[in-house]
Design brief:
alpha+beta; three-stranded antiparallel sheet; 9 strands
Length: 148
C-alpha cells in the first residue's frame, strides 16, 4: 500500500515522503492516527504542487539571505571599551553586543545567530560569523578599540 506521510515517522520517512507499507499498518495505524494519507492520484498531485510551492519559497528566502549576507559582510562594527594594563579589557564584547550593534545599523539578527565561541576580551580586529540560514553565513568585521 502506498501512503503519503503528513508527519515525520521514525524509521519510515519524513513529511511529504511517498512510502510503501503493509496494508494493515497503513489502514489500521497510519491513516487513522492522521500520520499519513492514501496515495491516490489526487493526493499525489496535491503533494507535487505543495513541493513546488515550498521550493519556490525556499529559493526566495535564500535570495533574501544572500542579499543580507552581502550587507552584513560590508559592515565594520567598532566597540570602544575601557582597557587596563597590557591592553586587557574590563569586561568583554559578547554576541548580545554584536547583535545590538547590528540592529542599530538596521539589520535585526537574533543574538543566537551570532557565532562567537567565547566573548572577545582583547583589543584588535576580529571576524565574527553570522548564521542567517542553514546554508547562508556571513562574516562581520568587529574592531575593539581603547576608550579615550
Amino acid at each position: 500500500m502506498e501512503v503519503i506521510l503528513i508527519e515525520d515517522v521514525p524509521n519510515l520517512g519524513e513529511i511529504g515522503d511517498l512510502v510503501n507499507v503493509k496494508p494493515g499498518f497503513g489502514r489500521n495505524f497510519l491513516i487513522p492516527h492522521k500520520v499519513a494519507i492514501p496515495a491516490s492520484s489526487k493526493n499525489k498531485a496535491r503533494l507535487e504542487h505543495e513541493k513546488r510551492l515550498v521550493s519556490f519559497r525556499l529559493q526566495k528566502a535564500k535570495a533574501l539571505s544572500a542579499e543580507a549576507a552581502k550587507q552584513v559582510s560590508s559592515l565594520t562594527l567598532v566597540f570602544a571599551r575601557k582597557v587596563g594594563e597590557q591592553d586587557k579589557l574590563f569586561g568583554s564584547v559578547t554576541s548580545h553586543d554584536i547583535a545590538q550593534a547590528l540592529s542599530e545599523k538596521g539589520i535585526n539578527i537574533d543574538r543566537k545567530k551570532v557565532v562567537l565561541p567565547e566573548p572577545l576580551k582583547q583589543l584588535g580586529d576580529f571576524k565574527v560569523g553570522i548564521k542567517l540560514r542553514a546554508a547562508v553565513t556571513a562574516e562581520v568585521k568587529v574592531q575593539i578599540v581603547a576608550e579615550t
